[in-house]
């Protein structure tokens, strides 16, 4: 069970109780009626006659009675409830629950529109995961059928491309990796390595108590059959930061930092995920620069995260606020239709990131929206778009263990575990030719007319005669010049490299030399941000 930071960090002035047993009794009753909003607040049971304290929270078991069986409240695909750590999410019409603390600890639920039963248990030995036996308190909720749910009628489903054709009406493909080669494209991706953040021995497990170290071995990261494979293996290893601490598994983690970044747009990732206790596949984004300070003041966008033991659902989230531990997050879950899981087929995970909101989809089906009224950065209180107004880069990884699912350990049969990624595609709104095949984007033909537009009539690249120009809304922002050996050269042709970058041959270089360059557009400051450099390839 994931506990919200705002609760798990609370410290009230309780004396550590002395307990003779861990028997539960109701705090003040067992029947609760929903109010006009459909909300119910339930104090946690007393343990041996004493109120629960912070260290007890991770030991409780919460279950709901559904279709004749008691099911884990946290198993959203069965319980029908999602966990909302920062309070009720007004952008979601789902059944929600979470913790509250007001001298005592409790749970809240909203909106309860129908009658239901909940039970709360506690291990008889006081240890997390211990036998509960009959040590439960049973509760009856009386629903309010008139309780409102948020109107989400504007949150429509979207079209997605096919494995063979990335074309989506209304979107222009600007970057992609279809993983069609035989090795990872290092012009697109970097490896992240090791077991520690910034070589700090206090950040073992990537600061999150994870159990894997990351490598650049083809045993962990490889491209085969048109797919990227990230594989977790039993591979015990220690590191110089703390020779007595061992990472029990190896796995893979790659990112696009300094190769590709995005500020606003759409990202589609088609993937098949592994199952198993403690497995944590993820597609996510971090800012290129920590403009607003260390994590999470500068933000994090989670496109997809999954718990390997719960294959019926995945989640998305944003992290924001202040530097840890004053950070906050908002998350939501997608539940696959009956008979489907994230492991038995490929699914497409999408975010559409706009200036004032971010939306999440699975297979084109909407499940979460977060707006700038809900996020903030403590370092920029007067900037409503912060921290999600900066370029972010992409990260793909398969973690093992960690706090995300309570530090669970895989069973022997869960390892090796493989995450497969069919493609990563990045779009901007507007029509245009996608980079590389299919869909065009080849080298300019010398017989082409004097004026050629690559992109759309809003923004893109324009070749007029021998001049290649960036343009936005028809305004020329920059000629493409490079200073080489003290002089200035201008390219006269271009071609796609198969991704979102362009390669420009430049007059005056030796045979085989090229200049590689790409850019992003910052609409807020009406400027082009270069991300390229001269690369000599003799």
Automatic annotation (TrEMBL):
Domain GH16: 139-432
Record flagged with keyword Transmembrane: no
Pfam family, one: Glyco_hydro_16
Recorded coiled-coil stretches: none
A single MF term (Gene Ontology): hydrolase activity, hydrolyzing O-glycosyl compounds
Lineage: superkingdom: Bacteria
Disordered: annotated segments: 429-450
CDD domains: GH16_laminarinase_like
Domain called CBM56: residue spans: 441-536
Keywords, sorted A to Z: Glycosidase, Hydrolase, Signal
Cited InterPro entries: Beta-glucanase-like, CBM56, ConA-like_dom_sf, GH16_AS, Glycosyl_Hydrlase_16
Biological process according to GO: carbohydrate metabolic process
Family classification: Belongs to the glycosyl hydrolase 16 family.
Name the UniProt record assigns to this protein: Glycosyl hydrolases family 16
Species this protein is from: Insulibacter thermoxylanivorax
């Amino acid at each position: 069970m994931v506990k919200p930071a705002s609760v798990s960090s609370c410290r009230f002035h309780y004396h550590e109780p002395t307990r003779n047993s861990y028997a539960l009794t109701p705090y003040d009753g067992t029947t609760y009626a929903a109010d006009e909003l459909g909300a119910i607040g339930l104090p946690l049971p007393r343990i041996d006659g004493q109120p629960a304290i912070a260290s007890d929270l991770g030991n409780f078991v919460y279950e709901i009675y559904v279709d004749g069986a008691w099911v884990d409240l946290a198993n959203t695909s069965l319980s029908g409830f999602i966990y909302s750590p920062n309070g009720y999410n007004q952008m979601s019409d789902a059944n929600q629950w979470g913790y509250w603390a007001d001298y005592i600890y409790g749970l809240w639920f909203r909106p309860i529109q129908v009658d239901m039963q909940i039970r709360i248990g506690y291990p008889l030995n006081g240890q997390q995961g211990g036998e509960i036996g009959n040590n439960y308190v049973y509760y009856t909720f009386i629903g309010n059928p008139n309780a409102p749910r948020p109107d989400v009628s504007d949150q429509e489903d979207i079209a997605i491309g096919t494995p063979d054709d990335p074309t989506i009406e209304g979107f222009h493909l600007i970057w992609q990796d279809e993983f069609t080669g035989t090795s990872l494209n290092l012009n697109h991706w970097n490896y992240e390595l090791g077991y520690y953040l910034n070589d700090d021995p206090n950040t073992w497990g990537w600061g999150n108590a994870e159990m894997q170290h990351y490598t650049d071995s083809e045993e962990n990261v490889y491209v085969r059959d048109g797919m990227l494979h990230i594989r977790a293996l039993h591979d015990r290893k220690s590191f110089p930061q703390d020779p007595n601490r061992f990472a029990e598994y190896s796995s893979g983690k790659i990112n696009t930092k300094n190769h590709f970044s995005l500020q606003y747009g759409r990202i589609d990732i088609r993937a098949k995920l592994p199952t198993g206790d403690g497995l944590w596949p993820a597609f996510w984004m971090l800012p290129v620069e920590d403009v607003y300070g260390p994590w999470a003041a500068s933000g994090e966008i989670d496109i997809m995260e999954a718990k390997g033991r719960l294959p019926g659902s995945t989640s998305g989230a944003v992290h924001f606020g202040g530097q840890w531990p004053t950070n906050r997050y908002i998350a939501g879950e997608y539940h696959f239709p009956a008979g489907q899981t994230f492991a038995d087929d490929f699914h497409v995970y999408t975010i559409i990131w706009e200036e004032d909101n971010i939306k999440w989809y699975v297979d084109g089906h909407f499940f979460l929206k977060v707006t700038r009224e809900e996020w903030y950065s403590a370092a920029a209180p007067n900037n409503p778009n912060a921290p999600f107004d900066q370029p972010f880069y992409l990260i793909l990884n398969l973690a093992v263990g960690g706090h995300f699912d309570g530090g669970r350990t895989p069973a022997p049969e869960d390892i090796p575990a493989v995450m497969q990624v069919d493609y990563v595609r990045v779009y901007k709104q507007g029509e245009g030719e996608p980079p590389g095949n299919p869909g065009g984007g080849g080298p300019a033909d010398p017989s082409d007319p004097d004026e050629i537009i690559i992109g759309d009539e809003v923004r893109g690249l324009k070749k007029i005669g021998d001049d290649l120009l960036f343009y936005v809304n028809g305004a020329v922002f920059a000629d493409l010049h490079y200073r080489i050996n003290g002089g200035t050269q201008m390219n006269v042709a271009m071609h796609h490299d198969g991704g979102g970058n362009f390669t420009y041959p430049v007059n005056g270089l030796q045979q085989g030399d090229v200049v590689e360059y790409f850019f992003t557009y910052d609409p807020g400051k009406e400027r082009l941000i270069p991300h390229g450099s001269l690369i000599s390839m003799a």
